[in-house]
């Protein structure tokens, strides 16, 4: 159980393009989803936390107009990287958890974003 | 502030036991987690322990928690080459209503045949 599906797994696109990444919980209701960014050989950096039906809470230093997050249902959250530039190239990972406090987060397989 | 520290690298021979260590600073931690990340993939939840427990065993995995020293360890018995990966320790802090996790830097486990 507790499967999280993330798509696409890899994206290569030109500078200036907007890219949407989807994160779905397949077998549980995800009241909270998290979006992370991971640089090579580094740990995960939390970008934002989203609760279903509410605006996302962004971590300090993360531009909310650049990284648009939508969590419209209990099984789907999306991250849109708007007008992406080469410095946005990274590995983006989502996670999801249910409503019980301290339930573990379950992670998607990540999206490798490469901006040319 | 909250901080989680791990050693960066561990190398063992196949069949030996591996012990990955983690220290944390937030005494209000409720749950502590171990995740495994293989190259190019997301994080896989391995096991977790509630802060009022000392030990948890699940097949080849044993988690030990020393709450006084704020030290957590993950022991992998009979380590296999398939265990080669990055292992992240994470703590869930009481002050977070959303279950936000604080991650360590990750320990790269190399298993030699």
Number of helices of chain B: 0
Largest sheet of chain A: 7 strands, mixed
- Helix fraction of chain B, binned, reads under 10%
Cα gyration radius of chain B (Å) = 14 Å
Biggest interface pair, counts? A-B, 26 and 22 residues
Task: Provide the descriptors you would attach to this structure in a database record.
heterodimer, A: about 120 residues, mainly beta, seven-stranded mixed beta sheet, four-stranded antiparallel beta sheet, about 50% strand, B: about 110 residues, six-stranded mixed beta sheet, five-stranded antiparallel beta sheet, globular
Write the topology of this structure.
The complex is a heterodimer of chains A (116) and B (113).
Chain A: E1 4-7, E2 10-13, E3 19-25, E4 32-38, E5 44-51, E6 57-58, E7 67-73, E8 76-81, E9 90-97, E10 106-107, E11 111-115
Parallel strand pairs in A: 2-11
Antiparallel strand pairs in A: 1-3, 3-8, 4-5, 4-9, 5-6, 7-8, 9-10, 9-11
Chain B: E1 4-6, E2 9-13, E3 18-24, E4 31-37, E5 43-50, E6 55-58, E7 61-66, E8 71-76, E9 85-92, E10 101-103, E11 107-112
Parallel strand pairs in B: 2-11
Antiparallel strand pairs in B: 1-3, 3-8, 4-5, 4-9, 6-7, 7-8, 9-10, 9-11
Tell me what you see in this structure.
The complex is a heterodimer of chains A (116) and B (113). Chain A is built from no helices and 11 strands. With 116 residues, chain A is mostly beta strands. In chain A, the strands form 2 sheets. In chain A, strands 2, 4, 5, 6, 9, 10 and 11 form a 7-stranded mixed sheet that branches. The termini of chain A are far apart. Chain B is mainly β. In chain B, a hairpin with a 2-residue loop joins β6 and β7. The mean pLDDT of chain B is 92. At the A-B interface, β5, β9 and β10 of A face β4 and β5 of B.
